[in-house]
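Margin note from the TA: students keep mixing up input and output lines. Inputs are the sequences; the output is the structure of the whole complex. Example:
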Amino acid sequence: MNYIKEKTPPVREDRLKACNAFGGSCCELSRTGKKGCLNKTKRTFAQTQGCQLNLSMSILNTIRDSVVIIHGPIGCGGAGLSFGALTTQYHKLRDSNAKGYIWINTNLDEGDVINGGEQKLKEAIIFADNEFRPSSIIIVNSCVPALIGDDIDGVVAGLQQQTAAKLVPVHCEGFKTKIMASAYDSAYHGILRNLLDKPEENGYLNGYLIEDELEVLKEKYRRSRNVNVLNVSSMSRADELELERLLKALELNVRFLPCFAHPDDFEPATEAALNISICATHDDYFVKHLKEKYNIPYILHTIPIGIRNTGKWLLDIAEFFGETDRAKGLIEAETKALNKALEPFRNQLKGKRVLLSGGEIRILTTAELFQDIGFEVLGVRGYHYDEFADPLIDGLPGKENILFNVATGQPFEQANLLEELKPDLYVGHAGINGWAAKQGIPVFPIFVQSLNYMGYSGMYELTKRVTKVLKNTQFSKNLKNNIKLPYKAEWYGKNPFSYIDSSLAL
Amino acid sequence: MSTIIDRPRYLCSLGGAISTLSALPGVISIIHAAAGCGSNLANAHNGAAGYAGSGYCSGLALPSTNVYENEIIFGGEERLKEQIEKTLEVVEGELYFVLTGCMVEMIGDDVRSVASHFKTRGDPVYAINTGGFKGNSFRGYDLVLQALFRDYVEKHGEKDEKLVNLWGVVPVQDVFWKGNLKVLKGLVSKLGYRVNTFFGEGETLSDLKDSSRAVLNIVVSDTFGIEAAKVFEEVHNVPYINVPFPIGDYGTGFFMNEVGRALGIDEAFTDIVIKAEKKRYYGYIERLADIYSDIDLQRYAVVVGDSNYAQALSRYLSDDIGWLPELVIITDDNLSAADRTLILTRFENYASGIKPKVIFNTHTSGVLKEVNYHCTPGNGERYYNSFSPAFILGSSFERDAADRISAGHLSVTYPVCNRVVLDRAYAGYDGALRLTEDIFGVLVASR
């Protein structure tokens, strides 16, 4: 893969034949989806969803010591109002002196739509550089300047010599794609092009003058055990600590990227022996380019959620380093201790029914975790579907009977499904959980940035919390009895996928 | 012309319009916009307004055409027709409003004619051009009101001599809007009038529809909803007054007198009402006499907020509880020179004699800067007169500035992320009691 010379990355409809509208069984999805047939499905009734710009912020607003310029009308990036303070706290978990998430909006108005917004962008870049003295200034391009043809890269090229900060343009206009996850490619594209230029080999090794051959060997050995773990902003610091604990047991040195990293952390990251993704949806574009450009191998199979996938993740890594036996020993010991701790919970949870909703990688692995602790998985709702889901679907026990609804949000389809399935628990993505609660279904979120979900400790924490949630379900019951959802009664009698139009599917 | 803004405290006109309509009972917004608009704005609507939630059909349930490249190239009217048709099938509502985002404005989709196609058919579908680049949330609020007054409110020749309308308190941007409207309605009711607030508790669409029977429109703002008041006057021949948003004894007394005067109410009667309210108010404030005096709970204060809140908070701090609001930062964008002049008059003639320094600065980084200009730090002297003890009344953004100057802090103005707000009000006498509880609650929190 090599799109780095392009100003913008391709969208995922094109690159991965991803789709975001489907309803049927897991098997049917895999069968039709594998051929890329679902690429052009759409909805005739739709509810709002995130765009590339919204989602790219999930990486970009975590980059420390940076300012994000949202080049667009005043509302773009407004979501920062709600999570800015929280993001700042997460910055501080990594660096207590961190300034936190700062963003500037170029406030394009009707005049700018006619005359162009480049002048305001220049002004914003200079303001950001002078006012905050950040290491990098990330320029996020929205729909309006894209349509009026502002030359973002031209402005950046013209100003880079004048600013102390590294300028990182990111092209993530919302209207370009219906696959929100294209955002990750846009964000990584900006990072790859602007924060990752490897310095010339010049007799220095990682900044240290080479003194003798032994030092060189030591340094080379150290590097041979360096790994980058590509984190996601939906994971917690506790998740990172758990993964680091497991990888340290294999004597690996861990660096977390890209979320909550400093702009200067990216360049040395090119010296790692291995890139370890925890989510293919998030990272495939990045790791494939790092392979192409710096010849760094990568692992992209699964997310370390639940016993089986955590084990698989560890074994993949261990195999690369020739540490399979050690990893097997670790997994065995961890699994044994965890299973013992989970026993009382498994008894309580046996036979409960669950529906899960969120990103494709996360829902499929979390579904397996829920099966492991005794739940029957009725269905999963994925934000989108692409080839990375296939191996996870293949490995999911009982997949023949598990429903798969591909939908970015679309709570109306979910309402119809919940009305019919009436699960004991709903596990979903932030933003849509409340709708399930209003239907009387107890909810557990599929991620919380302050909770541990990953690795062995995460599975215990999740199980413990889910058991807690089911101990008192009055909150959702009261909502159901007193609140009405906005859908007409007839809607619940219809097929939940009535508004998915497959006429353009191949 | 608008300028770049460091961490703006509002959204675009589309955002303001969505929030405003979501506060009207039974109204469904259908946004004709790119996919991310609704979701992004919903995040700010919920998480930055004291957890206002997704409402009846907002948040991720907001019907949206989610236009992509294809519609941008070939036009989005067909997609909009389809979306309206299907929304009428799926979503239960009394009124449906099409709101536009930037992209469809730029390609020139004629949403009004699409909406009128449905209206002619008998479906209650309206359209408002709210493209985000038209302005901020406050403008979105005004655009929605203008559209409602022009297209929805029915014309009535006959007036109802005891009916008034009241607005200017912007849903969501005023995080306490619902509680505030309830209090303001209660106050004007005490003068013997029935009051439509459109967005408050128990308001109905039919009251809105018949609101042209009112004899007066009371805009509780110097800046928000004024254009809409002009439209109302032009279309329905109802005059308006604008009065500053009131908090506490002095602010509310002024409000009652202004409203009373405009309605031709006998001053003696208004006085009786005010006296009764004050008696109740100071009956509670009296309780603070001990602790306030025992441990000196007077504070220097900085007020940060929109033009509605800034003057109201500052007046309350100075004249009701005897604080020293020396610095006020007004964060509104794009105010005209006339607006600024009017706003500045609201900081004059304080009973306390305090003259706050009032600054217009929209940048969030500007707040700490202004505070630093205002309070010169010590210069190595043994004694210096610091800006302490201090308190910042502003938004969640100001927590950082408050920490830096070791000041107390309460989030009152948008964004409010560190509090949950349901029906709490800060307006009027009742609201000032809540505000007093909350402010002094911060000061005794560690005891």
